[in-house]
Specification:
Layout: H1 10-14, H2 27-49, H3 69-77, E1 81-84, E2 104-108, H4 115-127, E3 130-133, E4 144-147, E5 157-159, E6 172-174, E7 179-181, H5 189-193, E8 196-200, E9 209-216, E10 219-224, H6 240-248, E11 255-259, H7 277-298, H8 315-329, H9 332-351, H10 359-370, H11 374-381, H12 389-407, E12 415-416, E13 422-423
Parallel strand pairs: 1-11, 2-3, 2-11, 3-10
Antiparallel strand pairs: 4-7, 5-6, 8-9, 9-10, 12-13
Helix pairs in contact: 2-7, 9-12, 10-11, 11-12
Length: about 425
């Protein structure tokens, strides 16, 4: 059957099938796509996460386990006026309080205050207010940490207060029972007798305990070894809520001022606390996107492709190729100059003289030593314009004769100076 009568038809056989290769996007397009993908990841993550929440420990606006927002809600539910502020107005803090100065309390969970604010708190205590400081390292009170009971190492424990001021409190439960005291607690009984000690230290050490109430003027400063019972995670355990109400808002209509932190940019504020949490999350997401991009670009999919190294040409082949290029260009002078330069270098090495010796001096020394014809030596060493191929061939023959003369044995070896004399 002929091709014209084939069932498939001649057109189907003769026309080749063209396969279009799928074009890959350029490097600029890939970088733009990668940047757009990273921005999309950051935007979606921010939208999913919602507004940033405060993660500072013991923050009265935080609903995290270590926050104290539940304590604020509890006291407000007991008709206690709660004011969360980092500023103190000593002149108006007692206005509108039915019990006067005795009905004003200030709560400091972590002392990041300045010296001026600490002085204002002491003045408030001297005027009749109660200042509750739950930071054992705070310089507001005159006591300091003296140790931690052994039982605290086993987790949360419960203890009952041993003072009349907290008679309605059954047990307080948490895991940080840091005891407070000072050097004078064991020696000066008169000084310690003026203090109220709740939750005393094991061993009946006078003047040491987890809660110390120190009289200051008409008021008092209550020092606590830890703010843990007031946190959202522990406020519902044991009688922690009753303890918070009895200590910070015992009567309806009292005023509680909560100082969560020192003022921003004060010298006690760590630098990282000045950076918003959303910025830190964005930097983390950008770092993750960068790592993913590096892994994506560094991995080579498919089998490895062997890389062809450049071919190594033999010297004869290289010389033949360069000669062919010069022949096509018609550069007779360039060819002659290369031959004469190579002959001059070989002659200088054979006669043990510097390779930069002038050609005329080298020629005189060579002719006198090897008894070589001077005209042939000048033709082989001195460069001149070359007009035709015959003159180029004559130069090549002269160079060949010079090399042959260098390879023949002659007089005893010695160094010939440029003026033709022999230096033995």
């Amino acid at each position: 059957m002929s091709a014209s009568t084939s069932p498939t038809g001649p057109a189907e056989r003769d026309v080749p099938v063209r396969r279009e290769r799928r074009r890959r996007p350029s490097a600029r397009v890939r970088r733009a796509m990668l940047a757009a993908g990273g921005i999309a990841i950051v935007v979606v993550s921010v939208l999913i996460a919602g507004p940033p929440r405060s993660e500072l420990p013991y923050d009265p606006t935080s609903i995290e386990p270590r926050g104290t927002a539940a304590m604020v809600d509890l006291l407000e539910g007991l008709d206690v006026e709660v004011d969360v502020s980092t500023r103190l107005d000593v002149d108006t803090v007692f206005d509108g309080v039915e019990a006067g100065a005795a009905g004003v309390r200030v709560f400091v969970a972590i002392d990041r205050l300045g010296d001026d604010q600490r002085a204002q708190l002491r003045d408030l205590a001297a005027a009749g207010a109660t200042v509750v400081v739950a930071d054992p390292e705070s310089p507001i009170h005159d006591v300091a940490p003296v140790g931690v009971p052994v039982g605290s190492a086993f987790g949360r424990t419960s203890r009952a207060p041993e003072c009349d001021a907290l008679g309605v409190v059954g047990e307080v439960r948490h895991g940080d029972w840091t005891m407070l005291g000072d050097e004078a607690s064991a020696d000066a009984a008169e000084a310690t007798g003026a203090r109220t000690v709740c939750f005393p230290a094991p061993g009946d050490v006078d003047g040491e305990g987890w809660l110390l109430a120190v009289p200051v003027g008409d008021g008092q400063i209550i020092a606590l070894g830890s703010p843990e019972p007031f946190t959202n995670a522990l406020l519902g355990e044991a009688d922690n809520a009753v303890f918070a109400a009895a200590l910070l808002g015992p009567r309806a209509g009292d005023r509680l001022i909560v100082l969560p932190r020192g003022e921003l940019a004060s010298e006690q504020t760590p630098l990282l606390e000045l950076v918003p949490d959303a910025v830190l999350r964005g930097l983390v997401l950008l770092g993750v996107a960068l790592v993913v991009a590096v892994l994506w670009r560094s991995r080579r999919l498919g089998p490895p492709v062997p890389e062809q190294l450049p071919p190594v040409l033999p010297s004869a082949e290289l010389a033949r190729s360069v000669g062919g290029l010069l022949h096509r260009a018609g550069d007779r002078g360039g060819v002659a100059a290369r031959l004469q330069d190579a002959a001059g270098r070989d002659l200088a090495l054979a006669m043990r003289v510097p390779v930069d010796t002038p050609t005329d001096d080298l020629l005189v020394a060579f002719v006198s030593r090897f008894r070589f014809p001077e005209d042939r030596a000048r033709l082989a060493l001195q460069q001149r314009p070359v007009s035709d191929d015959e003159e180029l061939l004559e130069i090549a023959r002269a160079v060949q004769e010079l090399r042959a003369a260098l390879s023949r044995p002659n007089e005893p070896a010695g160094t010939v100076t440029t003026d033709g004399s022999r230096d033995r």
